[in-house]
Amino acid sequence: MTRGLKKNPVDFLFGTLTGIASLSVVVLIGGIFFALLIESIPAIERFGIIRFITTVDWDPVAEVFGAASTLYGTAVTTVLSLLFAIPVAIGIAIFITEIAPSFLKGPIGTAIELLAAIPSIIYGMWGLFTLAPIMEEYIEPFLQGSLGRVPLLGILFQGTPMGIDLFTASVILSIMIIPFTASVARDSFNLTPSIVKESAYAVGATKWEVVKDVVLPYSKLGVFGGVVLSLGRALGETMAVAFVLGNNHQITSSLFDAAATITVSLANEFTEADTDIYLSSLYYLALLLFVMSFITLAIAKLFLLRAERRYSR
Amino acid sequence: MKRYLSLTMVVLISVVLSAGMVFAAETLNGAGATFPYPVYSAWAWQYHKETGIRLNYQSIGSGGGVRQIINRTVDFGASDAPVKPEELEKHKLYQFPAVIGGVVPVVNIKGIKAGQLRLGPETLCGIFLGKVTTWADERIKDLNPDLKLPDKKITVVHRSDGSGTTAIFTTYLSEVCPEWKEKVGAGKAVKWPAGIGGKGNEGVANYVKRKRYSIGYVEFAYAKQNRLAHVVLKNRSGNFVEPSFEAFQDAAASGEFAPEKHFYLWLVNAPGRNAWPISGATFILLAREKKESNIKTVRFFDWAFRNGDETAKRLVYVPLPESLKNRIRQYWKDNGIYQ
Fold this sequence. Notes:
The structure holds 2 protein chains of 2 kinds.
Chain A: H1 2-7, H2 9-47, H3 50-54, E1 58-59, E2 64-65, H4 68-99, H5 102-117, H6 120-145, H7 166-190, H8 194-202, H9 207-236, H10 239-244, H11 262-269, H12 276-312
Antiparallel strand pairs in A: 1-2
Helix pairs in contact in A: 2-12, 4-7, 4-9, 5-7, 6-7, 7-9, 8-9, 9-12, 11-12
Chain B: H1 2-24, E1 27-32, H2 37-51, E2 54-58, H3 62-70, E3 76-79, H4 85-90, E4 93-108, E5 118-119, H5 121-129, H6 138-143, E6 155-159, H7 164-176, H8 178-183, E7 196-198, H9 200-210, E8 214-219, H10 220-225, E9 229-230, E10 232-234, E11 240-241, H11 245-254, E12 279-287, H12 291-307, H13 309-314, H14 322-334
Parallel strand pairs in B: 1-2, 1-3, 5-10, 6-7, 6-8
Antiparallel strand pairs in B: 3-12, 4-8, 4-9, 4-12, 10-11
């Protein structure tokens, strides 16, 4: 080390600084995890782990807290929003890279990136004042009248449509994550060597065949990366969902019922949590979310790594 | 040359910082409830103009305000819910009310205007328990023989976030309705037996405006500013009262705010003849050993009690009645923080 210092002090300083910068991230993550853990210890001691995760009750007055309802809400909104967003996002990406005439590529690409730049609170306000009434008046009654009649599937569309429910929240979330998935997918589609595509066209493949058999297999890793990014965003998104989900701690089979996610409960209840155990339980929820996002992203990374290795061979 | 430049910068920055510290001596720091934030900051602005003393109030929520004053990180804390006397003893705190707020049930029923629908404690409780389910229910009809009530399902709207408004409302329901007390209880966030949740007063107001045949509860200011159809409530003396400055002040004047209990009181179901039954004071908390800063804080609130009523009313807050102000001044005097 001292030799390095003598040899080239500027380089040494530079190296140390960048090292500190990247180390600080690790320290920060560790610190956040540690802080969440310390703060949630009273709740962990009181409710345990299994019991906390499986208890549906969330009653601040009786001081009984369980995470089952919020975990359920988080899972449903995340999965549903990904289901809505992925096909649309991939469609956008295919259109921009393969189909759109070049004078359209620029404006559409910019518009989608702008969608990503809108702060989530604005999505929340728009969701509450504009989207929720539309959902309540037109879309949800329509779904109830059509899909709601299908046996079994109908369970998902029961109840009185209020516009403030899992369905609306998932739609808002999907709009928010479309730009992430779309722009990552577009970038990876662009990486397909044009020589391969041109060869495909040359042997008479149609546009659909080129996309299906050349572009998509070539870029599925990148697309998957985009999906993981969106998953992370959907898991942690707070303000937009807080306005349109109602924060009802319940597990419901209908998508037209109000529910709660972890982030929504935190945003709604943190400031006014007055007892220690209440506050600690909220920290416990945050800890669960932290662990959940960590695990999801880790699994996704693992998949990506494995796929990459197979791919490079 | 460059080196001198950076040296000058360092000197400049430290001068600015130390100047800031000099100013800090003339600054009062408070934190807590979000509900009184507009009136506290309006008072603070005028106070600064008159005296040069700054008041920095951070509306971080009542829970945070109580924690901060217990940890002694601020000069005063503020809470929408009164802190119990034994807690005040334990953490060595003083407490007094600063301004009154009220909670108003609002409805959206076709053909029914503000102040037309009469409700009593039992009906209100039944509606929020999910037991009275239609507007044509006999219990509502009995109170409103002259109104044409539709046979429509009631949609209950409540707050989805923890709030002092909910605390006041649920305390009232617990006070007047044993079943509510047993099944739900009172608190800033409760397990609602019925209805949908809106975030903030604006969320509840928005739902009630949009959803036909709904009922919700919002702060008085919200009901007034958004011209929502408020109900007329039967109070403890059996009178049907409209929510108004006078009705809230009557509640505050007839409420038994006791200095020996550090004014601990939920101002619900007050006995005054024209008292609005769902009101509550928002409170200030002081650390007992910090005499210096307490005197300054008290001076500010004394100034606000004298000069701030008009400002408060303009922002649709209810100033404390004169009799209560005097009781608070006596409380300050008895504890040696009033000069």
